[in-house]
Amino acid sequence: MAKRVTGPEIEKLIQLLAKVPGLGPRSARRAALHLIKKKDQLLGPLGHAMGEAYDKVKICSCCGNVDTIDPCTVCTDVARDQSVIIVVEDVSDLWALERAGAMNAAYHVLGGTLSPLDGIGPDDLNIKGLIDRVAKGGVREIIIAVNATVEGQTTAHYITDHLTGLDIKTTRLAHGVPVGGELDYLDEGTLSAALRARTTI
């Protein structure tokens, strides 16, 4: 059994960093050591920024995005075309599409996909919020931009069925998005092309 070489505070920092996606135990140790070496330039400001984020971050009551204001920056942007809503699984997908800069539309974050095997049903997602937004009027198109997985397609069909009769155009991303792929890992060019080549469901 390896002996501890640091105090409990540093071990706790390493353990918490190891829980961040993309960082394993070894990467977390390297990151922690780098932060400690740059204590004044990085560790202090990072701790302060994280404290502020903890206090101020909210979930947008309109679209489900994360921000420090509610409604969020995207929903309150008057330059956006609020008549077009891009439906995504997660906030990371919203950020990926924004990086691509292909459309200046509104968004709606579902918070996941339907997955009966995992016990995730319609009530566990932000689908009712989407239906309510559309029912209020002013929306002419819904772009379903979910991952090209079985769960994603099931979710897309469920949403499409529940939008029937609301007199709006429903489209989805083109098949340029690879099956089994996740939006957050795609390059901006692929995302832009997929949005431009969307098709009616």
From TrEMBL:
Keywords: DNA damage, DNA recombination, DNA repair, Metal-binding, Zinc, Zinc-finger. Pfam families: RecR_C, RecR_HhH, Toprim_4. A zinc finger (C4-type) spans 60-75. It comes from the Bacteria. The keyword DNA damage applies. Belongs to the RecR family. This is Recombination protein RecR. It comes from Rhizobium rhizophilum.
